[in-house]
Amino acid sequence: MKTIGIIGGLTWVSTIDYYRLLNEMINEKLGGNETAKILLYSVNFGEIKRLTETNDWPALAAIMREKAKLIEAAGADCLLLGANTMHHIADEVQAVIKIPLIHIAEETAKAIEAKRMKTVALLGTKYTMQLNFFKNKLLRKNITTLIPAEDEINYINQAIYNEMSKSLFLPATKNRFIEIIHRLIHKGAEGIILGCTEIPLLIKQEDAAVPLFDTTLIHATAAVEYALNTGNQIVNSL
What we know:
- The chain has 238 residues and is α/β, with parallel strands linked by helices.
- Helix content is 49%, strand content 12%.
- The strands form 2 sheets. It has a 4-stranded parallel beta sheet, with helices on both faces. Strands 2-1-3 form a 3-stranded parallel beta sheet, with helices on both faces.
- α5 runs parallel beside α7 (133-139) and α5 (104-114) crosses α10 (215-227).
């Protein structure tokens, strides 16, 4: 079994979910008392949030590069960035390590392609929704991405940073998300990408009439397949 490296704390709430999923899936596949081999570096989300909100991507890249090198040196065989937003700088992180960085958008694009969908909606932080790093991965597979209206983008973003990052999952927030999802389906979305690793803790499949793509689960599944040599070879196409 290979060792999975994770840069976590992006937020701690979703990092817990990563840890649970990785161990559950390894145990399901291997049985007995088998669990995942994981190296985790958990960063201070307060610092990450401040740098993200000021668009200081060079500083964020420096942090992620440093932690990635530490995780590689400690013996990890692959790396997960435990947040969709940080994949905006995934290529810069991959450039300083030799182990593969398993890209959350690349794996999500594969999952959508397998469902033969051509139009999906993307929910996440405003950075994930408005920057091109996620949408470009989909476009390479001829998948069109819809995003919410500007006021909805701002609402989703503040809910992620001010509520979900603190493990607050409020009924009113869930209702608003469901309304946004319904509007995106009406606009032609065949599926909905839960493109923030906290959103799957708020929104479940029963909340939508179309398939949901849980990026945390997709990302963790790809890591388990790599660790056990059961999946496709990870190919970084940054």
